[in-house]
């Protein structure tokens, strides 16, 4: 289980709420895995991720456009790579079925995304907004 830290907030309530929602879903999946129920929960988690990425990445990318975020193109590329990873995991599940390996891969993917992408890349969005607001 990963506890939300205030340091994960980027300072944009809508985005921060979406990030908290992702963490809650990740923790549900972790909990299922610790109870040996990861195989049962993986399909639901992937379905959530597909829907989440559409809504969240759309919101985040629109915000980046609105603030003229200098690294928008790179950020969009990273988002596209994450979506591809989710789709590849789903394809593996559909063709090979659920395995311990697939649950481990999803755990690692989500943990890495949360701890690295949100805490590093998305923080830059908040910093950009703060600088812009200070300049005004």
UniProtKB/TrEMBL annotation:
<dbReference type="InterPro" id="IPR012827">
    <property type="entry name" value="Hemerythrin_metal-bd"/>
</dbReference>
<dbReference type="InterPro" id="IPR050669">
    <property type="entry name" value="Hemerythrin"/>
</dbReference>
<keyword id="KW-0479">Metal-binding</keyword>
<dbReference type="Pfam" id="PF01814">
    <property type="entry name" value="Hemerythrin"/>
</dbReference>
<dbReference type="InterPro" id="IPR012312">
    <property type="entry name" value="Hemerythrin-like"/>
</dbReference>
<keyword id="KW-0408">Iron</keyword>
<dbReference type="InterPro" id="IPR016131">
    <property type="entry name" value="Haemerythrin_Fe_BS"/>
</dbReference>
<dbReference type="GO" id="GO:0046872">
    <property type="term" value="F:metal ion binding"/>
</dbReference>
<feature type="domain" description="Hemerythrin-like">
    <location>
        <begin position="11"/>
        <end position="125"/>
    </location>
</feature>
<protein>
    <submittedName>
        <fullName>Bacteriohemerythrin</fullName>
    </submittedName>
</protein>
<dbReference type="InterPro" id="IPR035938">
    <property type="entry name" value="Hemerythrin-like_sf"/>
</dbReference>
<comment type="similarity">
    <text>Belongs to the hemerythrin family.</text>
</comment>
